[in-house]
């Protein structure tokens, strides 16, 4: 073993024994296993091309609903654009409401925009099924995805209303420190609720709601901090006009979306790692930890495409006769939410009866080798 590998293996042993470090590394490892960078890129692209239709829908509907309340309309629009502190003011100057020549044209235009805006929800649904490693037959069909996409858009609208209400409270409140702290706490709670609602709308139904709460807390807090930091950077360093003009706007928007999407995917991974206890993971393999085997099995089992297709995952690196933990799946049924697990430990007795494939062969070979040694000893 060379010195570098020796150091890495020492660090690996340390992180596996220290639960917080093992959990954080488990989340990072799961993110890599699921090709998190690809999921983030897909979501960021969908968010970027969907943002302007969503803003146009929002401004147009608000112009119709709140036509008699111009003050509320302006406050709501300002609140939405403040969610993007780096370039929100530039977006506000360039997005105006849809005003066709007839009511029919307006309705048709809004329906087309809503249809296009569901692309973001579709990308989110794909990301959540990938994060939870849902096999193909268990993934929602077209109409189910469409219903969840519309629910996702309604949740966004509800979040805008709640955020506008908090902003109005801030405008009419005193500047006392206790009130500012209370408003920040309410903002964090609102963001956590938004994440929980979005996860519930996009995550497969079989996943219990309480399994979505930890990631919602992480995502809500991280999103609030991202907004605070963005506002600080904008006010402290980016007040002067940029020489890049429109390119600075596009790059700033892409950077903001990318960070927000990364937070969302990592928050979803927190839910999965906690629900399936996918830690500790090993930095250097072999040997594999049981969490490594669990995650590797998930990657293979999610590739089932049809119910007629039979997929089974086994490992031959365990000691002969070692029991297979019930948490490590072998078939797609054991990961399809709600997972239909065999709630018992698969022992060598089960393998002898044909419960497992590779484990049964390994146990049979070990038994034959032992019998051969006994026969040799007796002959000697």
Please characterize this protein's 3D structure.
With 380 residues, this protein is an all-alpha fold. The chain has two domains: 254 residues, no CATH class; 72 residues, no CATH class. It is 69% helix and 0% strand. The protein is built from 13 helices and no strands. Helix 3 crosses helix 10, helix 4 crosses helix 5 and helix 4 crosses helix 7. About 6% of the residues have low confidence.
Question: What is shown here, in short?
Answer:
The chain is mainly α.
- Kindly give the count of domains: 2
* Rg calculated over all Cα atoms: 26 Å
The CA-CA distance between the termini, in Å, is 40 Å
Helix content: 55-70%
Number of strands: 0
Overall structural class, as computed from helix and strand content, comes to: mainly alpha
Low-confidence stretches: 340-361
Mean pLDDT: 78
Largest sheet: none
Order of helices and strands: HHHHHHHHHHHHH
Percent in strands:
under 5%
User: Helix segment count?
Assistant: 13
Shape call: globular
Topology diagram in text:
Blueprint: H1 3-17, H2 19-33, H3 36-65, H4 70-82, H5 88-94, H6 103-131, H7 142-172, H8 177-202, H9 213-237, H10 246-276, H11 290-301, H12 348-352, H13 358-379
Helix pairs in contact: 2-10, 3-6, 3-10, 4-5, 4-7, 6-7, 7-8, 8-9, 9-10
């Amino acid at each position: 073993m060379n010195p570098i590998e020796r150091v890495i293996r020492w660090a690996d042993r340390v992180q596996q024994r220290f639960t917080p470090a093992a959990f954080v590394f488990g989340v990072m490892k799961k993110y890599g296993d699921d090709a998190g960078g690809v999921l983030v890129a897909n979501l960021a692209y969908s968010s970027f091309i969907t943002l302007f239709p969503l803003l146009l829908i929002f401004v147009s509907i608000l112009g119709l609903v709140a036509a008699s309340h111009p003050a509320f309309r302006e406050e709501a629009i300002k609140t939405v654009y403040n969610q993007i502190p780096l370039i929100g003011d530039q977006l506000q100057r360039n997005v105006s409401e849809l005003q066709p020549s007839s009511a029919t044209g307006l309705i048709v235009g809004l329906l087309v925009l809503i249809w296009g805006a569901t692309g973001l929800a579709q990308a989110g649904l794909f990301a959540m099924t990938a994060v939870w490693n849902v096999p193909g037959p268990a993934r929602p069909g077209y109409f189910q995805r469409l219903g969840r996409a519309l629910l996702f858009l309604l949740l966004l609208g509800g979040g805008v209303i709640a955020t506008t209400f908090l902003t109005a409270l801030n405008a009419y409140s005193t500047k006392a420190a206790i009130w500012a702290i209370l408003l920040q706490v309410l903002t964090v709670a609102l963001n956590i609720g938004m994440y929980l609602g979005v996860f519930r709308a996009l995550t497969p139904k079989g996943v219990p709601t309480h399994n979505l709460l930890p990631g919602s807390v992480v995502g809500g807090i991280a999103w609030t901090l991202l907004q605070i930091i963005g506002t600080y950077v904008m006010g402290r360093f980016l007040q002067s006009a940029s020489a890049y003009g429109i390119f600075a706007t596009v790059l700033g928007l892409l950077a903001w979306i990318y960070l927000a999407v990364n937070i969302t995917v990592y928050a979803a991974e927190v839910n999965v790692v906690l629900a399936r206890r996918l830690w500790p993971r090993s930095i250097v393999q072999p040997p594999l930890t049981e969490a490594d085997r669990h995650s590797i099995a998930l990657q293979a089992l999610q590739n089932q495409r049809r119910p007629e297709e039979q997929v089974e995952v086994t490992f031959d690196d365990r000691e002969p006769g070692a029991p297979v933990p019930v948490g490590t799946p072998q078939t797609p049924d054991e990961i399809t939410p709600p997972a239909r697990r065999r709630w018992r430990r698969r022992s060598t007795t089960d393998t002898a009866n044909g419960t497992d494939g590779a484990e049964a062969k390994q146990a049979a070979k070990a038994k034959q080798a032992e019998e051969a040694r006994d026969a040799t000893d007796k002959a000697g």
